[in-house]
Design goal:
12 strands; 7-stranded mixed sheet; binds glutamine; 31% strand; alpha/beta; Rossmann fold
Length: 211
């Protein structure tokens, strides 16, 4: 899979990045480098006409509470549960999980839809942040650098969830379930644009561009 820049204006997918908090600007920059139309999403109206939506890394409790205050939780649930292409990175992956462990007291609003259990700060207590090289069998070559920042990990996978990368535990740090992609690390902080290219391809397929 390559990270070719898309040149055909008419076929450019339009991808939104939830911009309430966290690392949204970095995702937008990479999407634009890939030739995609990338927009910041802060209101339900801004979700209209999108081919895909990225929930970025940051702090999932804060992001969930802000989303709740701004009336975004239900529209986000409708989006994900309606089968629209969605990619959650780090905190975004936590929000997409059906179940989360290690949450703050009082819990946090989850969007759900991804049939996994996520441990919110799985790597947090040992090492706050680290960089490693993942083996990603669906990439060629299969090595990919990954930056983990107070990162979660997936400890249980539903039957329909395909693991894309794992670390010793074993725990899963990248998975795909139909139109949903989730990564525990921050692909927007490394030069490897193949995760973004993969999601752009998923979003393009979602609107029938590949037919
Ligand atoms: N563990 C953090 C949380 O609970 C996520 C960290 C991140 O997105 N870099 O939200």
């Amino acid at each position: 899979m390559g990270a070719e820049v898309m040149r055909d204006e008419a076929r450019r997918p339009r991808i939104g990045v939830l911009a309430l908090q966290g690392a949204f600007a970095e995702h937008i920059a990479i999407l634009r480098r890939l030739g995609v139309e990338a927009v910041e999403v802060r209101t339900p109206a801004q979700m209209e006409g999108l081919d895909g939506l990225i929930l970025p890394g940051g702090e999932s409790t804060t992001m969930g509470l802000v989303a709740e205050r701004w009336g975004l939780v239900e529209p986000l649930r409708a989006w994900v549960h309606g089968g629209k292409p969605t990619w959650g990175t780090c905190a975004g992956m936590i929000l997409l999980a059906d179940h989360a462990t290690g949450q703050k007291q009082g819990g946090q609003p989850l969007i759900g839809g991804l049939h996994v259990t996520v441990n919110r700060n799985y790597f947090g207590r040992q090492v706050d942040s680290f960089e490693t090289t993942l083996t990603v069998p669906c990439f060629e070559p299969d090595e990919s650098p990954a930056i983990f920042i107070r990162a979660p990990a997936i400890t249980e996978l539903g039957e329909d969830v395909e693991p894309l990368a794992e670390l010793p535990g074993p725990v899963y740090v990248a998975v795909r379930q139909g139109p949903i992609l989730a990564t525990a690390f921050h692909p927007e902080l490394t030069p490897d644009m193949r995760w973004h290219a993969l999601f752009v391809e998923m979003a393009s397929r979602g609107r029938g561009l590949e037919n």
